[in-house]
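Entry for the shared binder. Reason: the reviewer on the internal report wants the predicted structure included alongside the sequence.
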Amino acid sequence: NGFDELSAAVERLALNDSGLEVHTTSAGSSSNDSSSSDGGPFLGPGLRVGFQGLLHVEVFRQRLKDEFGLDALVTPPKVPYNIKYLKGKNNLLGKGKDEAIEEEIIEDLSKWPSSGTRYEVFEPMVEVRVMAPMDHAGNVMELIKRKRGETHMTTTPIDERTWLFTSQMPWGEVVTDFHDQLKTTTAGYGSFDVVDGDPPFQKSKLNKIDILLNDEVVDPLSFVCHVDQAPAQARSVCKKLHEVLPRQQFVTVIQAKAVGGKIIASERIKAYRKDVLTKGGKTMGGGDITRKMKLLQKQKRGKKRQQSGGKVTLSQAAFNSVISRS
């Protein structure tokens, strides 16, 4: 379904774009369970491509469209989380009574432990070194703090105008929109690099947030964040999706659900509504309120049927809402 054409086009673009790092993910046909594919059940097989920021993503997608006529979707980056299962009745996870899981690495959020399972989450850590002008030191330190990197942060003067900021930071906070926010806070003068953290994984209180559209979980829009930031980030994603998702003939309900089934954020996109009380410039039903109410109730039932079976199309802007949620 166009995957070979996409792969060939990306390889050609990578020849003159040193910022791209391309890896092919598993095909959905290689397993009986389509969810085992790295692309997930919604997207199927794809390419893992490393970008330098959201601007790089937009330039890459535009080149694909202009030069090869392909319209590709770029999903939020995947981060490997180390899940350590604790003793409990649900720690077998259906793998057999003699094969209890103690520890595993999870990248696909559809495999995140379900509610009721006792586990601890260890997230990957990196050491971030930011070089920026001294005039923007306050903005850089605030950005690092917002990305949960305030512990063990050090500042070193390089010269009269430039400082070096070093901090341990979760990889999940860096790989999303740290590059774009750093460029914004330093007027384009800031730069950074990363090295493996010490230790490489750190225990943290993380929560998986599922995004639901009309009560249906959309796995590609799910994300993981710290429990203290979950309500704010969930509201941010729902609000951005409310702005970018197209209006439909039915009501679109956007919800963010935490592990355990609790809804922590919600938005509604109103449906297009036809004036069923007017036809050909004339008022239907005359002055009979009963007739008018029957027409409105009929329209309401039709909207409800559309909502239960209608599908919402996801654009690149919807995925960018998750990437730039913080």
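Summary line for the report: The longest strand covers residues 119-133.
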